[in-house]
Design goal:
The structure holds two protein chains of two kinds. In chain A, the strands form two sheets. Chain A has a five-stranded parallel beta sheet. Chain A has a three-stranded antiparallel beta sheet with strand order 1-8-7. In chain A, α2 links the parallel β2 and β3. Chain A contains four helices and eight strands; from the N terminus they run βαβαββαβββαβ. In chain A, α1 packs across α2. By secondary structure, chain A is α/β, with parallel strands linked by helices. Chain A has helices at residues 7-24, 40-55, 109-121, 164-167, and strands at residues 2-6, 31-36, 61-64, 97-105, 126-134, 146-150, 158-162, 171-175. Chain A starts with a strand and ends in an 8-residue tail after the last strand. By secondary structure, chain B is α/β, with parallel strands linked by helices. Chain B has two domains: 18-154 and 308-322, Aspartate/ornithine carbamoyltransferase (Rossmann fold); 156-307, 3-Layer(aba) Sandwich (Rossmann fold), CATH 3.40.50.1370. In chain B, α7 (188-199) links the parallel β5 (177-181) and β6 (203-207). Chain B starts with 5 loop residues before the first helix and ends in a 7-residue tail after the last helix. The chains are: A alpha/beta, B alpha/beta. Chains A and B meet through α3 of A and α2 and α12 of B.
Chain lengths: 183, 329
């Protein structure tokens, strides 16, 4: 197992992304963050905190569980289906620029599901994708707008993001061989 | 996958190790569930509730699945609730009512089920007047069977929605006094609730006319009494059961008015319960028989919340059973 990002590096990457978001988006009122469960949620909250620090404006932040939109729900040969958690988007996404946030971008299937879920909530002006790590191996035509770190991996490796809010500490590590963890 | 804080779980009094799936591919009764499975269903139902608050109340989870609602007894609430749950999950559904089907021409349950099964549905939701009908069907069918009420045996989704409703108002289930008052003898809702509430550690009191207390009911760890005042005294939850005139063979009490005088839930009687008591009823209501109108519509009543929660619980059960791989136990 190799550690590829530690707490300080994760902080710096998220701060850079926050600045990039401000650079690319005029009209702070239009912005909203939506974190994908599980670890997209604390990342979205940290970005919201950074944005407040920089421009003193609170960008609303919601939580999306994509379980009911997965394309592999009935396909698990073994192993449990994911436990469903609550989706909480306490604002209208209509006419907003949505920053969709996840920890790792891999096959792109999670993002596909998240896009399907989001459009059920309304019609945003635009959706932009924020990820902490892009590890490659896309199976769908999906690309991130903001990337914390590009991480070339082999398909057999697994990338594990740990965050203080969910795991007690911040760290991105890479491990071989892969378990069936294809998020 | 992270789990909710341990404190949330400890509050229910169930030290269960969380599970991520159900063991059985059918839901025949709550007696077959473990406490951890019950929590999985309740937690999933809580997440499902949000779908019902959206503008577009539909998710694609059961797309391409066919669910047949086979109802051999009249039902408005349960059938509507299952149908809405199925549609919110994008399943293809159809409902067969016995009165308008070949059953009226003399076909047996097994033959009806085998014929429906030849058309390859994924799940059958069955309501039947005979206790054990679901168990029998599960033995001859390869579809997943969900019990929507079988005779005087079980009505698992009702008990689950009741517990979901109680948990919303009073998270510490293990320390609650729950009084169930009414027609104990004919009630499948009672049987499912006694099993479920007992499993979760609640102090369950059952109360009804002596003629309607099932013999041996105390074996299930409940206190049986025909004193409604004793049952309601200090109760956190008062659950009323409908007097089921259609199932009665013989006379169990002199008149409805007499029943109301002795057992009906009135505001005065309710004053003995805890100040934050909640009033529940599985429906349909017999106003002025088991419950006074001002109690049914009063501030303590959560009767309509129960109905809303019914959809969420049924979505959870459908989703969890559909997610199990083929060929499971």
């Amino acid at each position: 197992m190799a550690v590829v990002m530690e707490a300080a590096l994760i902080d710096r990457a998220l701060m850079r992304i926050s600045h990039e978001i401000l650079e690319r988006n005029r009209g702070l009122e239009e912005l909203a963050l939506v974190g994908i469960r599980t670890r997209g949620v604390p990342i979205a909250q940290r970005i919201a905190g950074n944005l407040f620090e920089i421009v003193r404006h609170r960008v609303p932040s919601g939580t999306l569980d994509i379980t009911l939109y997965r394309d592999d729900l009935m396909r698990h040969p073994v192993g449990p289906q994911p436990v469903l958690r609550r989706t909480e988007i306490p604002f209208s996404i209509d006419e907003r620029r949505i920053l969709l946030v996840d920890d790792v971008l891999f096959t792109g299937r999670t993002i596909r599901a998240a896009l399907d879920a989001l459009v059920d909530f309304g019609r945003p002006l635009a959706i932009q994708l924020v990820v902490l790590v892009d590890r490659g191996h896309r199976e769908l035509p999906i690309k991130a707008d903001y990337v914390g770190k590009n991480l070339p991996t082999s398909i057999r490796e697994s990338v594990q993001v740990r965050l203080a809010e969910t795991d007690g500490f911040d760290e991105v590590s890479i491990r071989e061989p892969a378990s069936e963890d294809r998020s | 996958m992270t789990l909710p804080p341990a404190a949330d779980r400890a509050a229910t009094g169930v030290p269960a190790q969380p599970v991520q799936r159900l063991r059985s591919r059918h839901l025949l009764g709550v007696a077959d569930l473990t406490p951890a499975e019950v929590l999985l269903i309740l937690d999933t139902a809580e997440a499902m509730r949000e779908v019902g608050t959206r503008t577009i109340k539909k998710v694609p989870a059961l797309r391409g699945k066919t669910v047949v609602n086979l109802f051999f007894e009249p039902s408005t609430r349960t059938r509507t609730s299952f149908e809405i749950a199925e549609k919110r999950l994008s399943a293809d559904t159809l409902s067969v009512a016995a009165s308008s089907s070949s059953v009226a021409k003399g076909e047996t349950l097994v033959d009806t089920a085998r014929n429906i099964e030849a058309m390859a549905p994924d799940m059958i939701v069955l309501r039947h007047q005979s206790s054990g009908a679901c168990q029998m069907l599960a033995g001859v069918c390869s579809s997943r069977i969900i019990n929507a009420g079988d005779g005087m045996h079980e009505h698992p989704t009702q008990a689950l929605l009741d517990v979901l409703t109680i948990r919303e108002h009073k998270p510490a289930l293990a320390s609650l006094k729950v009084a169930i008052v009414g027609d104990l003898l004919h009630s499948r809702v009672l049987r499912s609730n006694v099993a479920l509430l007992g499993m979760l550690g609640a102090d369950v009191w059952v109360c009804g006319p002596t003629t309607m207390i099932p013999p041996g009911v105390s074996r299930f760890g409940v206190t049986a009494t025909s004193s409604v005042d004793a049952a309601v005294e200090g109760a956190d939850v008062v659950m009323l059961l409908r007097i089921q005139l259609e199932r009665m063979r013989g006379h169990f009490f002199p008149s409805r008015r007499e029943y109301f005088r002795l057992f009906g839930m009135s505001a005065e009687r309710l004053a003995r319960a805890k100040p934050d008591v909640i009033i529940m009823h599985p429906g349909p209501l017999n106003r002025g028989v088991e419950i006074a109108s001002d109690v049914a519509d009063g501030p303590y009543s959560v009767i309509l919340e129960q109905v809303s929660n019914g959809v969420a619980v049924r979505m959870a059960v459908l989703y969890l059973l559909a997610g199990l791989e083929e060929g499971g136990a």
